[in-house]
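Hi R.,

Here's the input for the oxidized coenzyme A complex you asked about:
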Amino acid sequence: MASVKEIKVPNIGDFGDVDVIEVLAKPGDRINAEDSLITLESDKATMEVPSPEGGIVKDVLVKVGDKVSEGIPILTLETAPAAGSEQQQPVSEPAARRASAEQAEAEPEPEPDPEVEREPEAEQPAQPSAQMHNLASDDHPITAPIQTQQRRLAHASPSARRFARELGVKLYLVKGTGPKGRITRENIQGFVKRTFDSGTVAGDSAKAPEGIPRVEIPDFSQFGEIERRELSRIQKLSGAHLHKCWLNVPHVTQFDEADITQLEQFRQSMKDEAERRGARLTLLAFMIKACVAALKEYPHFNSSLSAEGDALFLKRYYHIGVAVDTRAGLMVPVIREADKKGLFELAAALAALSQKARDGKLSPTDLQGGCFSISSLGGIGGTAFTPIVNSPEVAILGVSRAVMKPLWQDGEFVPRLMLPLSLSYDHRVIDGAQAARFIRFLSQALEDLRRLLL
Ligand code: CAO
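And here is the predicted structure with oxidized coenzyme A in place:
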C-alpha cells in the first residue's frame, strides 16, 4: 500500500525564517530521492532541500516568498508501494511526460561500484540533507553540511548541478574527479573550457549552442599593480541575469525625444503639495503613468513570449519595474498595479521601493511579476543609452537627462525642455514600426498630460 508522508524542512543549522526562492516540485510530479524540492535563500547563502525519498507529489505546502524554518512541512508525498504490492501509481499526464523527459535527461547512474555503494546509509535516519552555499563562492559551503547523511550515488552537489544548469552543461557528459567520482564545479568549468577550445558546444549537441567562448583572462600583474575585488552577491546575480537576457533577446533600440516643458512646469508647481503629502514628485512618477497608458494602447509591449517561442502571454495587469542603482549593484523592484495608482502614490511607492533596495531589504516578491521596466539615468546625465530588456519582459524604457534645446516652431526657435528616451525591445515580439509608434505615443503623453485622461 502506498503511504502519504509529509516532507519537512530539515535541520538547517542556525538559519530560521529563510526565504523560499524556488519551488521545484508540483502536485503530480514523480520525484526521486535526492531530487531538489525547494531552494532557500538567506542573506548570505542559498540552499537546496532535496527529498529524502522518491514518490509522487500530492500537495505542495509552500510557495515562493514564504519564510520557513526547520520542521515546516514542504509537501506531501505518496511514497512507492512496498515490495510485493507494485501497482502502478496514477501519474498526471504532464507529470508523466516531465518525469520521462527528466529520466531521459538524467545523468546515467554509474555502474554499481562496491566501494561506492556500501556506504553505511542503512543506519541513517531518512532525513533530507541540505547544504548552505555561499552565493559568493558556491563550492565552499559556509556552514558544515547540515546533515551528514550519506548520499547513495550522489554525483554532484546541488550547487554544482545548478552551476551546470546555468551553463547548459549536461552533467552526464562531465567526468567527476571529486571524492567517489563526484563532479565538482572545477570539473564543469574544465569541461566548458575544453568544449569551447575544441569548437563544440557544452549542452545537448542537437540543440542550438547554449554558450559562448570565454574571453581569456591574462595575469594582469605582469603589466602593473592590480587589486582583486570580489563582486557583490547582487552584482553576480544581476550580471548573470543581464547576460542571459542579452544572449537570448534580439535587441533593437528606438530613440525619441519628448518635449516636457509643460510637464516640468506642472511638476514644479505640484512639488510643495507632493511634499505635504509625503512624496517627492520626480519625473519618474510621470514616466510610469505614461508607460501604463502606452502599454494599454500597445498590449504587445505588456506580454511575454512562451518558452517555445510559439505564443505570447498577454498580461492584463500593469506592474512596472524600476532600475535602482544601489551600492550593492543594480536592482529592479516592481511597482505593482501602477495603473491603479495616482501620481503621488506612484511617487511614494517609488521612493519607498528605492529606499528598500538601497537598504538591502527587498523581498523576493518586490522583485517579481514585472511587465515592463524603466531605467532612468536622468538624475545623472547622458543623452541616450541602450538598456537591456529585462526578459521575460519584452521591452524596457531608458530615460536620459532632459536639456533645454532650441526647437523650430512657427518660424522661430523656441527654448523647449527635451527628454531623451531610448526604448529597447525584443524584436521577436515587437517590430520596428510598433516600437516607433509606442515611443511616439509615450512622448505625446508626456508632452500633453491631458492625453493620459483619454
Ligand atoms: N532629466 C532631468 N532631470 C532629472 C531626470 C531627467 N530625465 N530624472 C531625474 N531628474 C532629476 C529629478 O527630478 C531630481 O531633481 P529634483 O530634486 O529637482 O526633483 C534629481 O534629478 C534626482 O532624481 P533621482 O534620480 O534621485 O530620482 P528619480 O525619481 O528620477 O530616480 C531612481 C529614482 C531610483 C530611478 C534613481 O535614483 C536611480 O537609481 N537611477 C539609476 C538607475 C540605473 O542605474 N539605471 C541603469 C540600469 S542599467 O540599464
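One thing worth noting: Residues 83-154, 199-209 have pLDDT under 50 and may be disordered.

Cheers,
M.
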